[in-house]
Amino acid sequence: MDYAVIVALEMIRAVAWLVLLAAGLAIIFGMMRVINFAHGEFLMLGGYTVVVSTGAGVNEWFAILVLAPLVVGIFGVIVERLVIRQLYGRMLDSLLATWGLSMLMIGGVTLIFGNTVQGVATPFGGVRIGSYQMPVYNFVLIFFAAAILLAVWAVLKFTRVGLIARATMQNPNMAEALGIRTTWVYMATFGIGSAVTGLAGGLLAPVTGVVPTMGASLVGQSFITVITGGAAVITGTLSSATVLGSISQATTFWAGPVYGDAALLVVALILLRILPQGITGRIFKRAL
Amino acid sequence: MTIQRRQFLKSTGAAAALSLAAPLVARAATDTIKVGGLHDLSGALDLVGIPMNQVFQMAIKEINEGGGLLGKQVEPVVYDPQSNMSLYSQYATQMALKDRVSVVMGGITSASRETIRPIFHKYKTLYFYNTQYEGGVCDRNEITIGTTPAQTVARIIPYAMNLFGKKVYAVAADYNYGHITSAWIKRYVEEQGGEVIATEFFPLDVAQFGSTISKIQAAKPDFVCSAMVGSSHLGFYRQWAAAGMKAQIPMISTVLGAGGNDQVMLTAAEGNGILSAFGYFEGVDNPVNKAFLERVKAEYPTNTPIVSEISECTYEGMMIWADAVREAGSVERDAVLEVISQGKTYDLPAGKVKIDPKTHHAIRDVYIAELQDQTFVIKEAFPESQPADTQMVCDLIAQPNSNKHFEISL
Fold this sequence. Notes:
The complex is a heterodimer.
Chain A (H helix, E strand, L loop, with lengths): L1 H31 L6 H17 L4 H23 L8 H23 L12 E4 L2 E4 L1 H22 L1 H11 L1 H6 L4 H23 L10 H15 L3 H23 L1 H18 L4 H4 L6
Antiparallel strand pairs in A: 1-2
Helix pairs in contact in A: 1-5, 1-8, 1-9, 1-10, 2-3, 2-4, 2-8, 2-9, 3-8, 5-6, 9-10, 9-11, 10-11
Chain B lengths: L1 H30 E7 L7 H20 L7 E7 L5 H15 L3 E4 L3 H13 L3 E4 L7 E3 L2 E3 L8 H12 L2 E7 L2 H16 L3 E8 L7 H10 L3 E5 L3 H12 L8 E3 L8 H4 L2 H4 L3 E4 L8 H13 L9 H20 L4 H8 L4 E4 L2 E5 L6 E11 L2 E11 L2 H6 L9 E3 L5
Parallel strand pairs in B: 1-2, 1-3, 3-4, 4-6, 7-8, 7-9, 9-10, 10-11
Antiparallel strand pairs in B: 5-16, 11-14, 12-13, 13-14, 14-15
């Protein structure tokens, strides 16, 4: 019984993990059709912000919840102004440019902080569930994954800013004709997407090793989640994270992590074969 | 085709340059003794390669300050293979043929060693491999200083079983190191009458370990043996501590403290109590080591490396070679090898070391240490540990021409 609870909780946490990894990327890809290949390095930057600032004596939660999104968000706006802006509508070029950016970031961070950095301890301890123990931090991850999705949904659905964003997403020319400065919308979107990525990177820092090359192992999962989800930011991310996360985690429990990784890829392959536009390309078509 | 043309240009170009500079080179060749250093100074493994190179340079400086060798100064020839195998083979060839170095220290992964070892064998350039590895190299031209599983895993498993119990849960990185090491773990656990209840392998990019940690709790082993590698896998120790498991199930590792700074990447709360076994820890208590560590600190006051087995062994390699050159009165490979093969005992920072004439591997003191507040505290020493695994397959006295890396079957 308690084992079943543990398995269920681990599956939910795996879903939350994918949501955190993919949310920022989904915002940028879903709204702007820009593929940010430096996404993994944006996560890394969030992680470094937390490690460096807590090392300097800043409160860990302040670093995770405020500094990490702030630093990466501002960095995102700068990148958008300098690089991405020049490449709208040229998907391949922006892919190459952001790939270059990712290498630049890995090199830059290695140069400044070296190839190693002291990690931060995971806050809170363990919680007892039957005869098992599980980190309390798992629930923190689940909570913030849900909070991010909820916040994005509420902003898009109920605010004027959200309305403008949705209008730009649906038909940029029409939106401009109605007096919306779409370049600003894109800049803000990229900044917000980056900030969400920074927050995710900050939240992941206490559970993984923070090194300059950590992005490489995260970017794959992020992209698979976003592409499998399709264009709708929230429904897409949530549905694909749920499918991929729960199946891969169940496989991990059943057969081990190698098969868990493989299962994630196989499921993504099958889904994309059946639904080439992603899950929300056919199902939940009109969802956000 | 292009490559051939390029190689042609390169070699003719080098030949032309050589013939122009010939008088100069001829004079230079008698002035200094050249020693090659081939360590990854950039790329994925720079974390390990940079301290090795620092200690390598320091050893050369020390030899020169003591008057050099045979009345000549020793000159380092250093290339950075950038954790890239094609650069390893290129630079190895360059060292052997163009620079004509007397000896080479270097190579980190087994892949890099198997890239350069045959090159040095072919061109008869003496080679020192100073890394702990899976064992099995049988090549008279290679002196292997680092430990093998028969020296470390064979010690730590009985030690841990004695302390904690007979049921072991093994977790390992999913590539040849992890697979070979977990085979050794299984063998030594069973030799002691214990049982490995499960072995799990993790691809190097796996960073979530929740399911495994739950499974370990369900299996209730007496201790966990980890052969996890790399930065993503550090998450395992972190999540293990976060789940509150540290107080419940002890952990030993065959990797932690091997070469980089893993011990300081974990906080004290996450790392405390993890046991590890290697041929050297900074805490080795003898006057040679104290002086050695002081020299390291004086040489690199701002970027002092954490000295682990892999860099201390690089120092050993240089010192053993220098001693053999003095005794042989020559830097000729065969004369130097002759002296080294006599099995002389050296007093080095890690303790007593001698080279086994049968395998050209080091017979050395091995230490078990416990991680406490980000430093390793030595618990027990095992003097004169034999490279028993390599000895099973290799006999260079009977077959001096062997040039092979045996996979030791278990």
